[in-house]
Amino acid sequence: MQNPISCEFYDQLMVAIQRKIPSTIVYLEGEQNKSIKGIVTTLSVIEEKEFLILNGKQKISLHSIFSFNGKKHKEV
């Protein structure tokens, strides 16, 4: 079972969605760090996992994100 997402991180995501703030997301994909820029359009639960959905329809697992708009949310 994965650890829950912190309320602070969730709040930051909700503000970015509501205000359509262009965001920089750094996350882990496999063994590599990836970085992407875009506008987060929504949060979704898919097969019991939480994802953010970018305007380009890309899905990123919330548990793989360690930096959102320059703010660290967990250590790699």
Q: What does this entry look like structurally?
A:
Helices cover 17% and strands 50% of the residues. It has 76 residues and is α+β, with helices and mostly antiparallel strands. It has one helix spanning 7-19, and strands spanning 22-29, 32-46, 49-54, 59-61, 65-68, 71-72. A hairpin with a 2-residue loop joins strand 2 and strand 3. It has a 6-stranded antiparallel sheet with strand order 4-3-2-1-5-6, covered by helices on one side. The protein has 1 helix and 6 strands. The chain has a single domain, classed as SH3 type barrels (Roll). The mean pLDDT is 90.
Secondary structure layout:
Layout: H1 7-19, E1 22-29, E2 32-46, E3 49-54, E4 59-61, E5 65-68, E6 71-72
Antiparallel strand pairs: 1-2, 1-5, 2-3, 3-4, 5-6
For the biggest sheet, the summary is: 6 strands, antiparallel
Supply the CATH class.
Mainly Beta
CATH topology: SH3 type barrels
Instruction: Tell me the number of strands.
Output: 6
Structure at a glance:
This protein has one helix at residues 7-19, and strands at 22-29, 32-46, 49-54, 59-61, 65-68, 71-72. The chain is an alpha+beta fold and 76 residues long.
